Amino acid sequence: MEFDYGDYYYDFEEKVLRIRDGVKIISQDMFSRFHSQYSRLYAEKNFKVIIPNSVEEIEFKGFFDMRVSEYQIPNSVKEISQDAFRCNEHLKSMQWPSSVKIIQSCVLDSCSSLEEVVLPEGLELIGDSAFGFDKSLTTITIPTTVKKIDENAFQHCGLRSISVPDNIEKIERETFYECSNLEIIELHEGLLEIRDGAFAGCKNLTTITIPTTVESFGSGVFLYCEKLKEIYVPKALYDKYGKDYFKSSTSAEVIPYNELMSKKAITNPKARKENAENARITSSSKKEFKSFCGTIRTNLIADKRKK
Q1: Quick check: pTM over 0.85?
Q2: DSSP H helices in the chain
Q3: Residue 153 and residue 176: Cα distance in Å, rounded?
Q4: How do beta strands 289-290 and 261-262 pair?
Q5: Helix (H) or strand (E) run with residue 250 in it
Q6: Looking at residue 286, what DSSP letter applies?
Q7: Across the strands, what pairs with 58?
Q8: Is the dihedral of CA 151, 152, 154, 158 positive or negative?
Q9: Alpha-carbon distance 280 to 13, whole Å?
Q10: Phi and psi torsions of 42, nearest 5°
Q11: I need a surface site. Which of 10, 63, 143, 275 has the fewest CB within 10 A?
Q12: Average pLDDT of every residue of the chain
């Protein structure tokens, strides 16, 4: 049985909502009618939305508070405005179109069932609270083309691990606030600033390494990180702020280090601390070395798997 609503039609048997070909803009008004007048359609859950190639823009709150489990979005779409898919509590996966270079604020905020998001290379910016309160989202790969991640982008998210791309120079205020499942954070050389409360409330984080390029470090970055035991800090940054500044009321040990360390040097946990306080370790082959940040992470994961 199929119902026609003008700009879109719905098949109750297939559980598919199709936007009619020829529609160029999906506006909030299109589905505010859907909420207020078509109660039978709104009562549907876990259905698919198919968007035709004619659509170029999804406006503010275009699909706000829908009960959709999947969207098919073509590359004809050039702009997706803020709050577009907010509060889609049944949405399970999202393939972000490569034609849209910016994820606006709150676009996928409060999508509590969202488990998978595929972000394409070419994406440049992730807006504030873009993935906030997405409790089922445990992993996400941020493309290397992303240049900026706004504050609160992943607040209260279900992430277990995150790798921040090389192009990111600043981690904004409370970007990963209250990501209570977050265990592994990989930061790369080139990062210049970590702002206030960036990782506050990451209760499962046990160790982290600050890259040597970081020049500015905000307050309360690790506030409420109850399990945090080790913070590896570049010697210059350690000298600038002092040991207690990094602890943020945790019992973590703050360990200063200089430049690069070899895999062999940190394989032994005892040698790891000794060498972290040494001035420098050199190698005859660059291939046998990683940045201290990457190497620490590699060995920690290996140790964890052995246990």
Answers
A1: no
A2: 28-36, 39-42, 235-241, 243-247, 263-267, 269-276, 292-306
A3: 7
A4: antiparallel
A5: none
A6: G
A7: 26, 80
A8: positive
A9: 68
A10: -65, -25
A11: 143
A12: 86
